[in-house]
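Allow me, if you will, to draw on your knowledge of protein folds for a short while. Thank you for your consideration; the sequence and its tokens are set out here:
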Amino acid sequence: MPTDYISIKALVDDGQYEALAEYITNLDVDISKIDSISFTGNAIIDVILNDKMAKANKQDITINMSVGFNDAWGIQAYDIGIIISNLLDNAIKAMQDYDGVDKNITFSILSKSPVIIICCENPYSDENKNQTETQLWHGLGLKNIESIANRYNGTMRVEGKNGRFMNTVMLKAQF
């Protein structure tokens, strides 16, 4: 679950509406600083993608993207957003510990009816491979992704080979 959602929910649950208003105002300022590139035409997904691109750029990490989204898939943008956010956060975090020259993440969302495939790849070196795999498999983010994949009759696969770490999520469209 994205950090902002958890923070907002906690403030609402505690009845701290003044703090909530301030938090949202600050969040709005942060969002307005993000370059607004339309990747999918869906506002929720585009804000998440723009935020992750900005975070990666600040760390001299390149994200090569090929993404799409279609409401006709019957998959909620919120669920896709959780998947995107967690996959890219994990890849960006892994790149912080990566000592190689190739600081490129490849991210794609494509439809091959009746499934949607979301793939995130990043390089790894032998020094950070085991640490990255352990962090990813034990993280709450991947459990959330796996839960969403199961909800849409899909799967999640995490693998490392040929110096690349790849996380692939497949969701079945809900036509």
